[in-house]
Amino acid sequence: IVAAAGDLGSDGAAWHDRIREGLATAGARPHAFPTGDGLRLEAGAWPETGTDTAQLAPGTETILDPLFAAHAPAHGSAPKTLNPSDLGGATTLPGEGGLDEAAAKRRGRQVHRLLEILPPLPTADRPAAAHTLLCHGPDAASEEEIALLLAEAEKVLSRPTLAHLFTAEALAEVPVSAALDALGGRRIHGVIDRLILAPDRVLAVDFKTNAVLPDRPEDTPEGLLRQMGAYAHALAAIYPDRKVETALLWTRAATLMPLPHALVTAALMRAGQLDAGGGAT
Question: Which of 6, 28, 129, 221 could lock 41 by a disulfide, CB 3.0 to 4.6 Å apart?
């Protein structure tokens, strides 16, 4: 259907005039339309359009269940996923001074970054890489700070007893998520610094940059034990046929402290009543 309105002019240049000429050339015939006379181009046999409307058969009224007139019940929000690092409890020992909490966390991120990126690099290339990693961004450090952070990372990477944590087979920064019975079915989601997978065992290691270190696993700050307990139980759900072990790598001393499974499990159980916002007691 081609239609136009208004003054088309008399020079024959309007698009409506050109289409009319084309229709006439193609064999269109005059036709009376409800809106006025025009041209119609048709081909083939077109059936006549019926005007009678068939009567609908009488039917039975459908009565809906009252359920369909009621509003849907409010949907309760799912409990917040918990961070293993935020299950309550202290994360440092008495005497930890020098840096406030924000600065301590910043320093921890800086050391973690170096231990994530530097291991496969040749020793001679690490200073330049450390400078590139730490001279920009929200955790940017001064040249003096970078030198101290690099020294701490190099102390860890050069320790023969820790070499197995930084091989190509060791997994770095591994996300883990699981619903834990020990937390009443609540789900945790965290990132394990180093994960070692063997056919019969799993070792999860977390880096800690604390200045004051415990002499034995039982003296480890409660919050760190709860964190490792959450990792242990999550990995047990993921690898039910393997023995799960956890350990803390104290970067200041470049020492690895294995944590007894019973110790971290007991700490996880002490996480207490978790509120809807993820807080712990």
Answer: 28
What is the per-residue DSSP string for the chain? -----S---SSS-SHHHHHHHHHHHHT-EEEEETTEEEEE---SPPPPPP-PPPPPPP-PPP---GGGGSPPPPPPPPPPPBPGGGSSS-SS-TT--SS-HHHHHHHHHHHHHHHHHSTTS-GGGHHHHHHHHHSSSTT---HHHHHHHHHHHHHHHT-GGGGGGGSTTSEEEEEEEEE-GGGTT-EEEEEEEEEEE-SSEEEEEEEE--SS--SSGGGS-HHHHHHHHHHHHHHHHH-TTSEEEEEEEETTTTEEEEE-HHHHHHHHHTT----TTS---
Q: What are phi and psi of 273, to 5 degrees?
A: -75, 120
* Per-chain mean pLDDT for the chain: 88
User: Model pTM?
Assistant: 0.70
CA–CA dist 225, 246 (Å, integer): 10
Q: What does the block give as tokens for 82?
A: 């918990």
Tokens for 255, please give them.
């020492």
- Indicate if the pLDDT at residue 274 is higher than 80: no
In degrees, to the nearest 5, what angle opens at C-alpha 77 toward C-alphas 73 and 78? Answer: 130
The C-alpha atoms of residue 257 and residue 263 are separated, in whole angstroms, by: 13
- Over the stretch 67-93, which tens digit does the pLDDT of each residue have? 888 888 887 777 889 999 999 999 998
d(CA 88, CA 90): 7
Q: Which residues on neighbouring strands pair with residue 130, listed in sequence order? A: none
Per domain, the residue ranges of the chain are 87-93+100-269
> What would the pLDDT profile of 160-203 be if each residue is shown by its tens digit?
999 999 999 999 999 999 999 999 999 999 999 999 999 999 99
